[in-house]
Predict the 3D structure of the following.
Amino acid sequence: MRELVYYVAVSLDGFIAGPNGEFDAFLVEGDHMDAINDRFADTIPTDAAAALGIRQERTEFDTVLMGWNTYAIGGTPSPYRHLRQIVFSRTRTAEAENLEVTAEDPRAVVQRLKNEDGAAIWLCGGGELAATLADEIDRLVLKRQPLLFGAGIPLFSDRPYRPERFEPVDTTAFRTGVVVSELIRRREG
């Protein structure tokens, strides 16, 4: 069964973007980038990876899930065209290479995807979609940035209080202050 992985950059105070979707404060240069680009090459936008000479072999992820606002920030009609891209929106649509826009319940889509053959499913964002899919997330990979935003889009928007345990798998601290933490959902039984 495929895993749903929420792989995302997050500020120290728990925001994945600023109030208007800003993410330009996140550090994109430094010693953390080579390690991230090596393991998570599939998460780099297709054109950026090509410009950097980074091969994308779809070994970590072959599908990416996004809410409409996260998709719109990409600036191109098909930002991750090397992957199957599924964008959730009840009111908007778009057409592009390897892109599907759907108003279907995200949980139903993820449950169906998990039963297909393939690599892991990357939950790219945003916070509302992450909150909707919280029960389906199998693994968290958080790129904690040494920044305080003060306000913005939270890692999980409007999620009710319900503690759930994740077990640490790996944590790597870099000189830049970025800390990449990987955790898996603790399954009872």
Notes: The chain has a mean pLDDT of 95. The chain has one domain: 4-185. The beta strands are 4-10, 15-17, 61-67, 84-88, 99-102, 120-125, 139-144, 153-154, 166-173, 179-185.
